[in-house]
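Q: Give me a protein?
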Amino acid sequence: MANRTYMSIWARDFSEATMLGQFERLLGAVPFSAVRPGFTELVIRALDPSQASVLERDLRGQLLDAAAVAELLREYLHADSAYEVGTHWDLWAFDAGPTRWQMRPQPLEIFCHGEEYDGGVYTEAGHFQADLGFEHLFTGHAGLLSGRAGNALATEHPDEAAFLARMEQPENLREYHQKTRENIQKLMDWVQAIEQALPVEHYRLWSEGEENFEARLDEILAMR
């Protein structure tokens, strides 16, 4: 299974009284997909993830803004609750079928953790957390964009083998680097928008596969 990428955010002055307003401002900064705008789902959980959800709403087709989503949460505002909102943003992805790059909607999930939810999970996960999508959208496959591919280039999967063979052409690798840089820049632009919208104390970008995900992003951005 492909590794995932996340952003965790801790905010100043976060409390039961302020978290809904802060969550609304975070949702208002989301860079919606051009072809699939708006929020798609809302889930409210109480106490911890083992409990049945308190509320699940399908938001597709309603084009609710951040204020409207926050209003749906208002009667469920508790420090021991967590809120999950789904949407999409546009990132470059390589389509092996027609062998071309496409700017496609990618799922984006955003969470708000009350400070009493799941034993204070916010201390590790953040007051807010976003599941940004597949790691390779920001780091590339098999170390291709780091010069550390080595034996990682060996594969028995025909689609992967064809992709890696394509990347042996310098012009294709340059394009791969450029599209990945654009995805990283989309992420960093969103980080900047969040810092303007919220009193961010600190944030962390991390992934399931990279020991230091932020360093990998810096490495790719610095490559020429």
Remarks:
- The longest strand covers residues 81-95.
